[in-house]
Design goal:
Layout lengths: L4 E2 L4 E3 L11 E5 L5 E8 L5 H13 L12 H8 L2 H13 L5 E3 L5 E7 H8 L4 E7 L2 E7 L5 E2 L6 E5 L12 E3 L2 E2 L5 E2 L28 H7 L15 E6 L6 H11 L7 E3 L8 H14 L4 E6 L4 H9 L7 E4 L3 E2 L6 H16 L3 E5 L18 E2 L7 E8 L7 E3 L6 E7 L5 H8 L16 E4 L2 E4 L6 E5 L2 E6 L1 H21 L9 H6 L4 E2 L28 E2 L1 H9 L3
Helix pairs in contact: 1-9, 6-7, 7-11, 8-9, 11-13
Length: about 575
């Protein structure tokens, strides 16, 4: 973590001041009564974070006698909650008349709604209003560029989230085709446009536009997928997260279902759906739903991409889905501090220790990330976190359903912040020692860091996914397609375990690396986004496609052998 910096005899600086990201425009000072949400990360009992990590690995490792013995919220609270820190925080909040607070069920992360006037007094800072235009919407946030806390609070609070942390850049779906709509995105005209030579499985009304594209029957063929269970387990569910005005239209989802011979429905919305077409959201909903139906599907909404708000929502739900797919992220260098990322990791560990699987897309800019081409690669966060399963992207190697190759723009690489975890040590060492890997110069990456992605799935632009949106079919590419597909595969596997009265799979990575043979190895392609250096896909794990793409039949056999 960052060392605390005393900026006066009575104030402590938890994080260094930041520069405003170039995409945000300063509109002016915040009005005193304008409100914003901030997140207080409480300090933990001595040694509890290390104990949490040890527990997470024990309950997630199939070779451990503790495998599957996930913790309850009460057990995590007993381990992680610091009542003295909580009392100190709430006493301080009371002095500033802050009353709207909401903790996670574990209690070590507290969301507070405060006014700009309160924030300026609490953190001795200046709150401003910033805006950013994205398509037809204007996004607004209240933010500071620095903050401090009283010295007496520093023993209780480690980080204040979303006071200086600007929302990530909106994920712009890669929409492939020859015709532009009013937003300037490229859409497919009638008759498809993908390169695939396979028979079109979307033969219902409107489905002819899916010809040559990836659609549910292509995924079922390539990944040996069954139809969803006739009757899902009582506590089986999957979820996707959506941000920044990404909603879905029931009519689009119905159109997709009719055309492609499936039945996709959303069982629960966390947050309000606006019944408005969002390509990103409809991609997620239609494809995780096509794979897992009739397993209940939940959609979690946040107005802005706040990783903390999503974590807070999941960690505050007493009955969350066991599988969560998130197609959003940003670069490590775009986070406010290492301490911020470590605080996020502690929350991710807690979620995993409860038996919840979290999958993040690896990004769509290859090794260069959103920060762009330069003298070093830009690893992703949370994709580079050791406590999530990260999903990269592939293309078919030919125009037929068969072997895959690394998508050149699929994110992958090595964290500059987090060391290589034990569960991937042997796989990554083998990759780094492989003479056929044609590794980039070591100055571009941290070879001792956590390597990602862990797995991959189709997501490239050669044969995009056929998505029903705005009443028509559109080709969409990206790891935001790959991620819900892999999440759907594990949703089916999870349902099998739950139906047999076994624990959910939980944190997936130890299982994945111990069962690499259950994935389709990808041995060609490079994720350089067309710009010089990148990582080459080779036999075994690699930093372009991880362990490869899922083979459900082999994975099911591996799952059946678990305790």
């Amino acid at each position: 973590m960052l060392a605390l910096v005393a900026v006066s005899s009575a104030r402590i600086q938890l994080e260094s001041p930041i520069s405003v990201p170039g995409s945000w425009t300063l509109t002016g000072p915040a009005e005193p009564e304008q409100t914003t949400s901030v997140y207080f990360f409480l300090s933990h009992p001595t040694g509890s974070v290390q104990k949490l990590e040890e527990t997470l690995l024990a309950v997630s490792d199939p070779r451990s006698p503790s495998y599957g013995k996930h913790l309850s919220n009460d057990e995590l609270r007993a381990m992680m909650f610091n009542p003295e820190a909580d009392a100190t925080l709430h006493a301080w909040l009371a002095t500033h008349n802050v009353t709207e607070t909401s903790p996670t069920l574990v209690g070590d992360m507290v969301k507070a709604s405060i006014t700009a006037a309160q924030a300026e007094a609490m953190f001795e800072t200046k709150m401003n209003l910033y805006t950013r235009q994205f398509q037809s919407a204007t996004h607004k946030v209240l933010r500071a560029t620095s903050y401090t806390i009283p010295e007496e609070l520093a023993s209780a609070v480690t980080i204040i989230g979303d006071i200086i942390h600007f929302p990530a850049e909106p994920r712009t779906p890669i929409v492939v085709g020859a015709e532009a709509d009013k937003t300037g995105r490229k859409l497919l005209g009638g008759g498809g446009g993908g390169s695939g030579k396979w028979a079109n499985g979307c033969t219902g009304t409107g489905g002819t536009s899916c010809k040559g594209l990836v659609e549910p029957s292509v995924l079922r063929t390539r990944y040996s997928l069954p139809k969803g269970p006739s009757s899902p387990a009582n506590n089986s569910a999957v979820a996707v997260a959506e941000f920044q005005g990404q909603y879905y239209k029931d009519s689009d989802v119905s159109k997709f279902s009719t055309a492609c011979g499936t039945t996709v429905t959303v069982a629960k919305n966390h947050g309000k759906n606006e019944d408005s077409a969002g390509i990103e959201s409809e991609l997620d909903v239609e494809y995780i739903g096509a794979i897992t139906a009739p397993i209940p599907l939940a959609v979690w909404y946040q107005a802005e991409y706040s990783l903390l708000d999503w974590i807070k929502s999941v960690a505050s739900d007493s009955d969350p889905a066991y599988i969560h797919s998130v197609s959003y992220g940003n670069d490590e260098v775009q986070q406010t501090s290492t301490a911020y990322m470590e605080s996020v990791n502690t929350q991710l560990m807690q979620i995993g220790a409860k038996g919840i699987s979290i999958l993040f897309a690896s990004g769509d800019q290859g090794v260069w990330g959103r920060s762009g081409h330069g003298s070093k690669f830009n690893p992703d966060f949370p994709g580079g976190s050791p406590y999530v399963t990260t999903v990269g992207g592939t293309d078919f190697a030919t125009d037929d359903i068969g072997d895959e190759t690394a998508w050149s723009s699929g994110g992958g690489g090595f964290s500059n912040t987090f060391p290589r975890p034990s569960w991937q040590d042997a796989s990554v060492k083998a990759y780094l020692a492989d003479s056929s890997a044609d590794l980039p110069p070591q100055s571009y990456y941290n070879a001792s860091g956590r390597g990602y992605p862990d797995v991959a799935a189709l997501g490239g632009q050669k044969a995009p996914y056929c998505v029903a949106t705005s009443g028509r079919f559109t080709g969409v590419a990206g790891t935001s397609a790959s991620c819900p597909v892999v999440a759907g595969v594990f949703g089916l596997l999870n349902d099998h375990r739950l139906s047999n009265n076994k624990s959910p799979l939980g944190f997936l990575n130890p299982f994945i690396y111990q069962n690499a043979a259950a994935f389709n190895d990808v041995t060609s392609g490079k994720n350089n986004a067309g710009l010089g250096n990148g990582f080459t896909a080779v036999k075994g794990w690699d930093a372009a496609t991880g362990n490869g793409t899922p083979d459900y039949a082999k994975l099911l056999a591996a799952v059946k052998s678990l305790p």
